[in-house]
């Protein structure tokens, strides 16, 4: 989960990380995924709803 998906993707792209899915927009959030060194996908999610914050 991240606060700003576009900023995270920009940072990861600058480090050579491959985005494996286009960003999709849903009522409740924005989703995509990046490729891990192992070849597995790591989903990334930016919620568009209120979330609990830690103290």
UniProtKB/TrEMBL annotation:
Instruction: Name the Gene3D superfamilies on file.
Output: 2,3-Dihydroxybiphenyl 1,2-Dioxygenase, domain 1 (3.10.180.10)
VOC domain location is 1-47
Q: Which domain of life is it from?
A: Bacteria
Q: State the protein's name.
A: VOC family protein
Native organism is Lentzea rhizosphaerae
């Amino acid at each position: 989960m991240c606060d700003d998906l576009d900023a995270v993707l920009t940072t990861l792209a600058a480090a050579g990380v491959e985005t494996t899915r286009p960003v999709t927009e849903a009522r409740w959030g924005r989703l995509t995924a990046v490729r891990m060194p192992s070849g597995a996908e790591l989903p990334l999610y930016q919620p568009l709803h209120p979330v609990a914050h830690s103290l």
